[in-house]
Amino acid sequence: MLGSLTPLLYLQVSPVIVVIRNLKTGAAISAAPELALSADNPPKVLGVGNSARSAAKAATQARLINPFAHPRTMVSDFTSAEILLKALVGKVLKKSLLSPAPSMVIHPMGNPDGGFTQVEKRAFRELAMGAGARLVWVWTGRPLTDDELKTRQTPADAGHWEA
């Protein structure tokens, strides 16, 4: 019964854009993978996604971070990536006191030489858990259709599921 109440989110993550869709409600967001942080200790979040760049410019001392942009790996700053995803997930979910935690399919968009390492897959899994997921699948392959996401059934050569 809880499964029918639980939202299913599809997160496509790349160094250029983050797309999050709620398959239950149809709500979606496409945002720049950027986070603006103050120079305070500890830093404060000034803006996320598309508003991060203008928030960083408006502050006297701020850092603009893209936690998914690095020449060797997709996750360059785990803590910033977790803050970014948590904020963006919050924008597509209508939270209430009794709302269940969502299930998430996180899809790192890219095709690194040799594929994603187990360390990278685990990092994406833990990012989704930190963003509020109760259950996570990491998908590496082509973009998925809504039917494939809902059933987690794809042709054998289309990619790889990891629960």
Number of strands: 9
Strand fraction equals 25-35%
Total of helices: 5
Structural class: alpha+beta
Elements, N to C (H/E): HEEEEEHEHEHEHE
Low-confidence segments: none
> What would the principal axes of the Cα set say about the shape?
globular
Helix content: 25-40%
Overall pLDDT level = 87
Query: How is the main sheet built?
Result: 6 strands, mixed
N-C termini distance:
21 Å
Rg computed from alpha carbons, rounded to a whole number of angstroms:
16 Å
Spatial order of the strands in the main sheet?
Answer: 3-2-1-7-8-9
Descriptive notes:
The longest helix has 15 residues, at 78-92. The chain starts with a helix and ends with a strand. Helix 3 (78-92) crosses helix 4 (118-130). With 163 residues, it is of the alpha+beta class. Helices cover 28% and strands 27% of the residues. The protein has five helices and nine strands; from the N terminus they run αβββββαβαβαβαβ. The model has no long low-confidence stretch (mean pLDDT 87). It has a six-stranded mixed sheet with strand order 3-2-1-7-8-9, covered by helices on one side. A hairpin with a 5-residue loop joins strand 2 and strand 3.
Summary of the model, kept short:
This protein has five helices and nine strands.
Fill in the keyword field for this structure.
alpha+beta, three-stranded antiparallel sheet, 9 strands, 163 residues, 5 helices, six-stranded mixed sheet
